[in-house]
User: Fold ZZ-type domain-containing protein from Caenorhabditis nigoni.
Amino acid sequence: MKIPKCRSGMPVVESTNHESHGMGHVPLETHLVYVNFYTYEDAKQVRMILNEYTAFDDILQKANELLPTCRWRIFSGTDKHVSSEFKNSRQVWDAIKQTSYYEIRYLEVRMIKIGGSARCDGCYREIFGSRYKCTECSDFDLCGVCELGPIHSFHKLIKI
Ligand SMILES: [Zn+2]
Ligand SMILES: [Zn+2]
Assistant:
């Protein structure tokens, strides 16, 4: 496995400021984790060495490496269901810690596209404000008004 490069395309700054992130002398807890990446139609398993400080960035970077055709957000879940969005390494680490099976750790990551059409699939108007994305259809969004109605109540929508 190669060493992760600078994250998320940000400019590389000479790194004398690690201490300011509070991880200077704290020993890293790391785990070998079998990470299952799911999209609506596909699944891939990747073995990753993760630590509690950079797990979120490492997984997000891997998701965007696996399917670089678009940008992704990462959620807890599988191809069948999606729950909460991962937003930091603490949440990812907590999820990993819950899944110990004979010392093997797993993480289920559901990838959901960023962007795509920002047009409502209910009223066909451009969406301003809250947008509700279907967790099962590959590209289905509703505006806040249509989300209240029965248009797509057979699938779970998440606010993005
Ligand atoms: Zn609408
Ligand atoms: Zn749907």
